[in-house]
Amino acid sequence: MALPRVLVLVLAGGAGGRLELLTEQRAKPAVPFAGVYRLIDFPLSNCQHSQLPDVWVSVQHHPASLSRHLANGRPWDLDRTEGGLLVLPPYQGTDRGGWVSGTANSLWRYSPLVRDFAADALVVLSADAVYKLDYREVVDAHLESGAEVTMVTTEVAADDASRYGIVEVGEGGRVTGYAYKPDEPSTTTATNEVFVFSPGPTLDRLEDLGAEHGEEGLEDLGTHLLPAQTGDGAARAHPSAGYWRDVGTVDSYWRAHQEFLSDDPPLDLDDPRWAVHTRGGRHSAARVLLDSAVDNSLISGGTRVLGDVHGSVLSPGVVVEAGARVVDSVLLPGVRVRAGATVTRAVLDNEVVVGERATVGGDGAVTLVGRSAEIDAGGELPAGARFPDPGTD
């Protein structure tokens, strides 16, 4: 029996404004994670392990930063003569052309291409979460259920639930209620931005909603499409008990890194049965010198550590000079912490230079410093660098 024909659409075109300085010069899915990875590596690796070789990536903001990373799709086995990786930029020339204004609007714009592909199932993903998931398993359950949409769900903290699409689930997994980022969530069961749609009925419904609300009024999937499918009893839930973390805010991004520094990290990124793949770099081995002290940290290739590093993630090319101290922080590629400087509870973007004896962070909040900033001893951080207490998003 032939496998169902499945198309994966990764919606990677959002501005990522909640990541502030980290997305000023790069697409959100291109944001580094755990030293050597990018956020988009997680859904693409899941596609490879799920044996789904037809993957389209919708891009928009800072597309070059993502296109350079994706290249021909080889790390995820998507460099194929037929199928494989297809990057979809904004375009003009048809009545569907123009700037994408939301995830549902994006699906509406590409619906003629999706129809032409003639898939049995359409998997729609975001690219701002860290997780592993067998999409093929979800597709099989969706096709068996006869639903119009299957929402993969996860449990979230009650004080964080208003950031997500919240569902109520009844007998047999039927979704009986859906609310998009509600002020007062009725449950803590959230969609984790993985959806499997039956393409024909979903696109037909989207056309009707577009006629009713206008193409710009479609906005996100959770604005009109998912509530309409839920209201008609056409939505099913597929619970996922595995690790899943949305890293779409500075604080959640920092906290996710801290989880990977534990003695028992939530995911084994090198597990040969489900490894997370990325575009390879050309960095030498990390160098940790004798007089330095490193503990509970992730140290990427091409780094040089002469000082002390505790509970931190160092991306390729980072240098921590003698006498410098880095604590509970995430340093992105090319950061240099000079002699005697201290960095505490901070995220430093590419090529930041912390000058000799300078201090960054350490007041209990998560501090973010934008790309290429230079911080001198006694100098002030760039405007907008401070973020709320870690208890809030």
UniProtKB/TrEMBL annotation:
It comes from Geodermatophilus pulveris. It holds the Pfam family NTP_transferase. One of its GO terms (molecular function) is glucose-1-phosphate adenylyltransferase activity. One of its GO terms (biological process) is glycogen biosynthetic process. Gene3D superfamilies: Hexapeptide repeat proteins, Spore Coat Polysaccharide Biosynthesis Protein SpsA, Chain A. Residues 9-261 form the Nucleotidyl transferase domain. InterPro entries: ADP-Glc_PPase (IPR011831), GlmU/GlgC-like_hexapep (IPR056818), NTP_transferase_dom (IPR005835), Nucleotide-diphossugar_trans (IPR029044), Trimer_LpxA-like_sf (IPR011004). Keywords: Glycogen biosynthesis, Nucleotidyltransferase, Transferase. Residues 293-363 form the Glucose-1-phosphate adenylyltransferase/Bifunctional protein GlmU-like C-terminal hexapeptide domain. CDD domains: ADP_Glucose_PP, LbH_G1P_AT_C. This is Glucose-1-phosphate adenylyltransferase. The keyword Hydrolase does not apply. Transmembrane segments: none annotated.
